[in-house]
Amino acid sequence: MKVEVAKDKALRIINSGQVVLVSCAYEERANIITLAWCMPLSHKPPLVGISIAKTHLSSELIKKTDEFIINVPGLDLLKNVVYCGTHSGRQVDKFKQTGFTPEKACRLKKTPVIKECLGHLECRLRNVREAGDHFLFIGEVVCACAEKELFHETWLIDRVKLIFHLGGSCFTSSGGKIEI
Question: pTM here?
Fold first, then answer.
């Protein structure tokens, strides 16, 4: 038997998305936002989309610099991932509060990568679309890096634990690999 799900929880039926930390910066101000609304959009050119509430500081910073970085955390960083998703960059410096290390990106000049993450995608902003109370930021991947021992054409899932958000305060992690 199925039950009706409240509309404000409906997206949880289809989105148990991988959690990422998006870093962005403008002048001397850097920020980190936790997102599960991140998706590939195109192979050629390599495009990704991230959805961020219009009112968030990260939306402002990305629009000012036309760049952002998608950082992939491992399960060992869950406490800091939750912190970055529950605190505003307007009130706190998330790099300082979490102990995350900002590191120079390979191609982008303004935005740091998060050293402690397993990999990252450096993105130049190609387009912004309004999507209800969010902006959909479309970025072109200009550089991608991942830990050598954890990634070979795909994540080596027997060696890495990725984080997935189920909704609210519920998370899960990657399990074993299924190959067909």
Answer: 0.93
Domain at 110, CATH number: 2.30.110.10
Backbone φ and ψ of 13, nearest 5°? -65, -35
Question: Is 4 within a domain?
Answer: no
Q: What is the pLDDT of residue 30?
A: 97
- Give how many domains the chain has, as a whole number: 1
Residue 180 CA from chain centroid, whole number: 28
CB of 113 closer than 8 Å to CB of 69: yes
Contacts 24+ apart (CB under 8 A), 101-107: 102/23, 102/30, 105/69, 105/143, 106/143, 106/145, 107/142, 107/143
Nearest alpha carbon to residue 161 among 150, 147, 148: 150
148 part of a folded domain: yes
The band of 176, judged by pLDDT with boundaries at 50, 70 and 90, is low
Nearest-angstrom CA–CA distance, 165 and 9: 13
